Amino acid sequence: MTVDRSIAPAFQIPDQIDFPKPLQRTLKNGVHLYFIPTPEIGAVKLEILADSPAMLGKQEKKLLAYFTLHMLMEGTQSKSSAFLDDFFDTYATEVEVLSTFEHQGLSLLTTKKHFHTVLPVFRELLTEATFPEKELAKRKSQKALSLSIMKEKTGHRASQLFRQELFGDQHTYGQIADEQDIAKIKRADLVRFYEKQLWTNVEIFLTGNLQDEDLEWIDRILGDLPVKEKKEMPNHFSNSNHMRIVEDRENALQSSIRIGCHLLPKSHPDYFGFWVFNVFLGGYFGSRLIKNIREDKGHTYGIYSSIGSLKTSDYWVVMADVIKENREEVIDEIYKEISKLQDELISEEELETVRNYLVGNLLSNFSSAFELISRFKSVHQAGLDLDFYKKQLEYIKTFEAAQIQEIGRKYLSKTQMVEVIVG
């Protein structure tokens, strides 16, 4: 039988998706390790993550965690920064800083062949960093220059002001660092944070072609890591009436816009509904905002809406850089598109287009073991498991226009929006 390749195969939504659950081990020091074996891949990725000061209810100097983490590669008690750079390059290994609002740590990406060689050296970064004064001064100078440059970028500044208004300027998430904050950082601060607080409530996420004996060896290397356990103090935020924040720049050709609010957590029954509402509005390249403000009016190259992830409550934001003269019209059109989704039922054609997009996008997020462990980590840190994605697929298959309309009405009110314009 000859296949007619001029006809695309019919799109089929899978009945269900089954994920291999990570294997969980507990190291000698009580640290939980989550492992997904990848027999077909010759790479190994290990991430070690701890709670940020904000998750522990602690107030620290601004940028303290940033400098501590970025100084770990500047030398250990037995190895110089030059040696470390050359060593990891020689063994085709990448070491990267991991940092979010709620977690911080390091990742190691290497080959299975070299894993046993590089992990002991990686281990030294976790407990034997020396934070040389000369390198710290250089890092501070570089960061000050970076802040000065980024301050001139309207998009960066708009995001800063949005976070500050959304979370409050007294909260870590809303604080804006400047050159004075950099000057306040001392080597003693880094040493104290490194020794007393950095490795608190640690978890390890691992993928690779590894066997039981490899996991036992990891326990020998990392099982004596001196970690701390402290009760988390998750942050709870709520919406209130906000004033618009405008920072005009006479010479700017465009304005950066941020509009958003606090949202419900991933564990909430309405989460999937709002997630779908967001996709219709501005969550993919065929969204309402793209078609209206980019394609029809030509006011911007890109505009999108997204959901930021936090443990107790996510947040939602629309982001765009637009021609300065059209910024008020763009903001009006954003609210018009929100209102349309709240007041008018979505057509069957658009409904099915987005449904098919969501299925394809969801499945593409699990095309490799590295992505699987990343998705697991995302829901695990929110107190959930991989069943979250099974429920997400089921919602995608069954949601109706009226559900999306109702959820949009329920959670998006103009009076609760943070509005920021810079430029």
Short description:
This protein is α+β, with helices and mostly antiparallel strands and about 425 residues long. It has helices spanning about 65-70, 80-90, 110-125, 135-150, 155-165, 180-185, 185-195, 210-220, 270-285, 290-295, 325-345, 350-365, 370-380, 385-400, 400-410, and strands at about 25, 30-35, 45-50, 95-100, 105-110, 205-210, 245, 255-260, 300-310, 315-325, 420.
Question: How would you characterize this protein structure?
Answer:
The mean pLDDT is 92. The strands form two sheets. Strands 1-2-6-3-5-4 form a six-stranded mixed beta sheet. By secondary structure, it is α+β, with helices and mostly antiparallel strands. Helix 1 packs across helix 7, helix 10 packs antiparallel against helix 11 and helix 11 packs across helix 15. 43% of the residues lie in helices and 18% in strands. It has 15 helices and eleven strands. It folds into two domains: 200 residues, 2-Layer Sandwich (Cytochrome Bc1 Complex, Chain A, domain 1); 178 residues, Cytochrome Bc1 Complex, Chain A, domain 1. 33% of the residues are buried. The N and C termini lie far apart (62 Å).
